[in-house]
Amino acid sequence: MNGVVFDFNGTLFRDSAYHETAWHTFIAQETDRVVTKEEFEHHVHGVNNHEALEYIFEKKLSKDMADELAERKEKIYRDMILALDNGNQLVDGVEEYLDFLVERNIPRTIATASMKNNVDFYFDFFQLDRWFDYDKVVYNDGNIPSKPAPDFYLKAAEKIQCPAAEVIVFEDSVSGIRSAFNAKAGAIWGVSTDGNNQMLLQSGVLAGVIDDFHDPRIYKQF
User: Is 106 found in the same domain as 195?
Assistant: First the structure.
């Protein structure tokens, strides 16, 4: 394999619970709906905000309206992260693994359904420029079809100048795994969140599932 593409939320930073809480807070403020855990997993987790919002509001939304609503939700989320003690800690082993990739000059980037405001926040909060080129990050700019469409990972592979078939993808969501599979990624590793190992393995397309980035198997990919 010649390159690595990481999802961010839930993969490099275990924030799924905070996103879910922020979504439920936002939904309670803006609607009368109750979104179940199953609905959240399939229609919100790993899906870009515009599509998630249309699912929640059960109607089509203009880009401007979706962006405005999404920013309200994301501010709830960012305020939660800033209020955490030791909130700026990536998943165990991430820093060492990224250092390993940097030392070997292995091309790498992030493909995330997050909006630009959140990507800016992450780069500042986690000092991601130690490992990633901001200009190569693929994020939700409103023009890329949501995961599970392959576009996020195809664009990420293009950004690091690697054929998708030679790229390793790390993902924590069902929609993200399908996206990487649809992009014909060379290898897909699931990253367990909240004990969802079996659900990820049921996709039938993974090289394996890891609990953190200390797993020796991921170092043997190069």
Answer: yes
Name the domain boundary from 50, 83, 116: 83
Report whether 58 contacts 67 (CB < 8 A): no
Angle of helix 49-57 versus helix 63-82 axis, rounded to 10: 100
| pLDDT on residue 87 | 64
Mean pLDDT of the chain: 92
Q: Which residue has the higher pLDDT, 214 or 63?
A: 214
Q: Which one-letter amino acid corresponds to residue 113?
A: A
For the record, the structure tokens of 74 come out as 């994301």
Residue where a domain terminates, one of 53, 83, 113: 83
**Cα diameter, the chain:** 52
pTM: 0.87
My answer on whether 150 and 117 are in the same domain is yes
DSSP string of the chain, one letter each residue: --EEEE--BTTTB--HHHHHHHHHHHHHHH-S----HHHHHHHTTTS-HHHHHHHHHTS---HHHHHHHHHHHHHHHHHHHHTSTTTT-PSTTHHHHHHHHHHTT--EEEEEEEEHHHHHHHHHHHTGGGT--GGG-EEE-SSSPPTTSSHHHHHHHHHTT--GGGEEEEE-SHHHHHHHHHTT-SEEEEE-STT-HHHHHTTS--SEEESSTT-GGGGGG-
Q: Amino acid identity of 34?
A: V
State whether 7 and 42 are in the same domain: no
